[in-house]
């Protein structure tokens, strides 16, 4: 499976609810130089695509302030799915073992690392 | 603290630089490898026109991928050009590979072919001292 195919998948929680598309794949570098998937970032809603594509959810958009204000909602709604929670990496749909409302926010999860 | 990378922002579409800092392509895609009971890994990054064609898909993508396949040096195996992640020195705003471009004849095949067959035949194309 290609990385860009995974970025086109939707994520479905344990109750069958749609969590939105995979917006990003978080990676860590392993000893052998490979990258291991540590988790997925999911998010839906207005301007989510722009927020994730520009890196606003990743804290990479310093300004201008009106843009940050516009994207704040999408940033706040982004959720993090740890790779251990994924039960099926699927072709079009990624299934996870937890419920959408129990997923941590992406910013909170990153801050805690 | 372990650095976390974003596949979308740190790898895909990022410029590849060789050991001397020469740009030679960009990361068009990555190949995920799945393991039983473990998180997937990325062992190779893909570059070149074939990987790009496969990524965008459709008629245009197929056309690009097929042209790239036709231009492929027959000494090298089929499929998009893959660079092992072990060869990636570090990732900042670019992806730095610890190989020199001349050590990667399968990379930037069209550019190699044009340099050898077209550019070298142009009078004055060599070094100033030649």
Structural commentary:
Chain A has 4 helices and 6 strands, in the order H-E-E-E-H-H-E-E-E-H. By secondary structure, chain A is an alpha+beta fold. Chain A is globular and about 40 Å long. The mean pLDDT of chain A is 86. By secondary structure, chain B is an alpha+beta fold. In chain B, 28% of the residues lie in helices and 31% in strands. In chain B, strands 5-4-3-2-7-6 form a 6-stranded mixed β-sheet. In chain B, strand 2 and strand 3 form a beta hairpin. In chain B, helix 2 (49-56) packs antiparallel against helix 3 (58-71).
Overall body shape of chain A = globular
Look at the structure and give the mean pLDDT of chain B: 84
Based on CA inertia axes, which overall geometry of chain B fits? globular
**Main structural class of chain B:** alpha+beta
DSSP strand tally of chain A: 6
Q: Biggest protein-protein interface?
A: A-B, 32 and 30 residues
User: What is the total tally of β strands of chain B?
Assistant: 7
The major pleated sheet of chain A works out as: 6 strands, mixed
Q: Give the helices and strands of chain A as they follow along the chain.
A: HEEEHHEEEH
Percent of residues in helices of chain A comes to 25-40%
Average pLDDT of chain A: 86
The low-confidence runs of chain B, each spanning 5 or more residues with pLDDT under 50, are none
Strand content of the residues of chain B, in percent? 25-35%
Strand and helix order of chain B = EHEEEHHEEEH
Spatial ordering of strands, largest sheet of chain B: 5-4-3-2-7-6
Our count of helices of chain B gives 4
* Unreliable segments of 5+ consecutive residues of chain A: none
């Amino acid at each position: 499976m290609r990385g860009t195919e995974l970025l086109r998948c939707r994520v479905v929680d344990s109750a069958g609810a749609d969590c939105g598309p995979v917006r990003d794949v978080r990676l860590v570098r392993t000893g052998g130089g490979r990258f291991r998937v540590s988790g997925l970032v999911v998010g839906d809603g207005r301007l989510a695509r722009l927020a994730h594509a520009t890196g606003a959810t990743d804290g990479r958009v310093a300004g201008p302030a009106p843009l940050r204000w516009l994207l704040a909602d999408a940033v706040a709604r982004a959720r993090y799915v740890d790779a251990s929670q994924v039960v099926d990496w699927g072709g079009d749909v990624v299934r996870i073992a937890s419920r959408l409302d129990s997923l941590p926010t992406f910013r909170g999860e990153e801050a805690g690392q | 603290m372990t650095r976390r990378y974003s596949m979308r922002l740190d790898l895909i579409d990022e410029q590849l630089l060789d050991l001397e800092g020469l740009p030679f392509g960009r990361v068009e895609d990555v190949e995920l490898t799945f393991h039983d009971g473990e998180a997937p890994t990325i062992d190779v990054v893909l570059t070149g026109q074939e990987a790009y064609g496969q990524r965008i898909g459709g008629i245009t993508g197929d056309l690009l991928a097929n042209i790239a396949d036709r231009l492929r040096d027959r000494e090298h195996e089929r499929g998009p050009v893959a660079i092992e992640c072990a060869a990636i020195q570090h990732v900042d705003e670019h992806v730095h590979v610890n190989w020199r471009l001349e050590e990667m004849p399968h990379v930037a095949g069209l550019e190699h072919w044009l340099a050898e067959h077209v550019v070298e035949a142009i009078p004055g194309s060599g070094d100033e001292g030649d």
